[in-house]
Amino acid sequence: MNTNPPKSPLLPAEEEIDMVKEVLILTVMLDLIEFEVRRLKTAGLKMLIIHTRKLRAIQDMLPKELHRMHRELKMRGVRIIETNRARGHIKGHYLCRGYEYEMLLQGDTIRAEIQIKLAAHYGIDLTADDKYGDEIP
Q1: Residue-wise burial string across 75-105, b where 16 or more C-beta atoms lie within 10 A, e elsewhere
Q2: What InterPro entries does this protein's entry cite (predicted)?
Q3: Residue 134 CB-half CA count within 13 A
């Protein structure tokens, strides 16, 4: 990973913007997994333990990843100072080398990114044809 600061001290590098976005998404993902586990427990699934353990394993990895990303951002002079979640979006305010910036992620973007991440953890190719008819609208 390139740890060199961007050429312009005022603007965040593309990689830094991506990292801020990733932190916001992973934060939502942590809460979403907890919500999904609770829902699964009330669904009466026969193989509940398989699903919940996989989700919990993913959930256990996320704080470590978030910590690593916050540490990397700090080394680059970037700090997320506030996040506001509302129905349909999340807004993050962050400082980059003394200048304040804002990032707004729409719910559809967050949902798609989380689906991609969960599919990767489960080893599922979302680009493949849905031969089982499980396509979600």
Answers
A1: ebbbebeeeebeeeebebebebbeeeeebeb
A2: YhjD-like (IPR058600)
A3: 7
Closest listed residue to residue 41, CA positions, set 55, 27, 28, 31:
55
Strands (E), 60-98: 78-86, 89-96
Q: Are 50 and 37 in contact (CB under 8 A)?
A: no
Domain ranges of the chain: 14-122
Cβ-in-10-Å burial (0-12, 13-18, 19+) of 35 comes to: exposed
List, in order, residues 6 or more apart from 111 with CB less than 8 Å away: none
State the amino acid at position 108 in one-letter form.
Answer: D
Q: pTM to 2 decimals?
A: 0.83
pLDDT in tens, 16-51: 999 999 999 999 999 999 999 999 989 888 899 999
Q: Which parts of 31-114 are beta strand (E)? A: 78-86, 89-96, 99-106
